[in-house]
Amino acid sequence: MKKEFHFEVHTQWQKNQFVNPKTHTSTIDGKESINVSAAREFKGEPDKRNPEDLLLSALSSCHMMSYFYVCQQEGIEIMGYKDTANGILELHPDASGGFKTVQLNPVVTIKNSDQKSLAISLHEKAHQLCFIANSINFKIKITVKINIL
């Protein structure tokens, strides 16, 4: 039986509320609001989060949490995890566009050197489980590095 979960975000903009007319507020009930703007490349405020940053953040975070899940199932103790996600957004002449590719670069530190190969291979399973990766239409590349503590 499939389960459904519902999420809701409130986006609010009002004329003259911010110096930059592309800046707005994103609110999720019960959580701190954030000010969002267009990316600097699209005349937004460079010190504000932008939708492109948030998409990369969501993808990187979702992959990490899916990876933690599969590692826990396999008995791999993760001691540290960091990732640098890079994306290429392609802009078309008609001003439409989208991400063409995203590169995830997780660096994982584990305790047991005997689990290194398994720890590497589990990134593919994590990718298959990632809700965000399953919701997008661009290619995701994953380059993994495993460190042993």
From TrEMBL:
**What InterPro entries does this protein map onto?**
KH_dom-like_a/b, OsmC/Ohr_fam, OsmC/Ohrsf, OsmC_Ohr_Peroxiredoxin
Q: What is this protein called?
A: Organic hydroperoxide reductase OsmC/OhrA
